[in-house]
Model the fold of this input.
Amino acid sequence: MTDLETLPQSTVPEETDLVMTLAGADAIHFLQGQTTADFENTEPGAVRFAAFCNPKGRVIADVLAIVVSNDQVMLRGRQAVMTALATHLKPYLSFSKSTLSDSHWRISCEKIGAQRSATEHAARLQYDADTLVRIDIPRSDDITESWRVSGTAAHSQAAEPLALAEVDIMTARARVELETIGAYLPQDLNYDLNGTVSFTKGCYTGQEIVARLHYRGTPKRRLYRAVIDDTGGTVAPGSRLSNASNRAVGSVVNHASIRGAQQALIELTPEAASDSVLLEDPQDTLSAIEACYEESDHSTSSR
Done:
């Protein structure tokens, strides 16, 4: 098990995330029983976005998982969230033939000039002799996320570097932050629409709640992309969003500056998207609100 005191506590914008390694004979089996994603029958290089939930079906961590082998999976998540996740998983790992340890891999993203094949979904594992030194992960047709050990080149010469936070917003990939651990159902973040949740796999913590909403209910909130018009201060994840009548209609999930504009992923009641949406602190108005996915099962009731 990882020594939590050794995990990095300070971050810079392009290093908000941490890569950890789950290793051991039970690594795949452990993730199969703990996360929303299906890890059965995976091959080296398999890419899985996955979420860990609490018994109430609320997301406590999101990870990008890369299967290296049958007994090794690498997990990338927010540094503070991964620290909390390691603590949460400690009692479960004590009964598993696998261990979770921190690593010092670096993370970078780049926009490439040539588009990759639409059929390419697996990560590319690069080795130096028998040592894994780099993992390249397709995030879209023209964006690659790379994990690398120190000394490995970060970008190709023709690449345009991008911050991970930019890529997440551009690709509508909602992230759990320290402030929002346990705040959202997977459906609030569109995890049921983008492959993060498998509805054909076996049980995992919170599965009954998530499945019941999928099959018998309608999500009250969905993920949207928006522009924050004139933020005069720091926008905290989880910040309340309200309508003109000061009724709560959602919250800020993630926020980043992209090409000079303050952009955000927000979870929002669908009926509020066509009305005025206000940020409570700092007080600002959201504009250019657009749904990240077209979906017809929205509920208009409040929670």
